[in-house]
Design goal:
globular, 9% helix, five-stranded antiparallel sheet
């Protein structure tokens, strides 16, 4: 039985963990230790991205066309929820890629 537990532990994938959030000139870069399952959409001009990942709650602000945009990561039932909200509706796109054995998700925003 112990051998089976040890083999299971060795073959189980590492949990996906949010490592850091960086502010860029037109959005955010979100770093994970590996690729998370995710779902995202724009709802009423704000961005909501849900990641099947672990991590800590955090928040911040960025400047887009000299106006404030607030972002927040919080724990939810499905994992981590990243919300990006501004006083005016936002649009944009996001794309992920593997960089140096980590997963980088680039989020580019613009006013609607």
């Amino acid at each position: 039985m112990m051998v089976g537990l040890m083999i299971g532990r060795l073959t189980a994938p590492d949990p996906t963990v949010l490592q850091q959030v960086e502010v860029t000139s037109d959005g955010l870069v979100v770093w994970f230790n590996n690729e998370p399952k995710s779902h995202g959409e724009f709802v009423d001009g704000s961005l909501a991205l849900l990641f099947e990942a672990e991590g800590k709650a955090q928040k911040g602000q960025l400047r887009l066309d000299d106006k404030n945009v607030n972002w927040r990561v919080r724990l939810s039932d499905g994992g981590l929820l990243l919300s990006v909200v501004a006083a005016r509706p936002l649009q944009g796109e996001w794309a992920g890629s593997e960089v140096n054995d980590r997963w980088r998700l680039e989020i580019h925003l613009r006013e609607q």
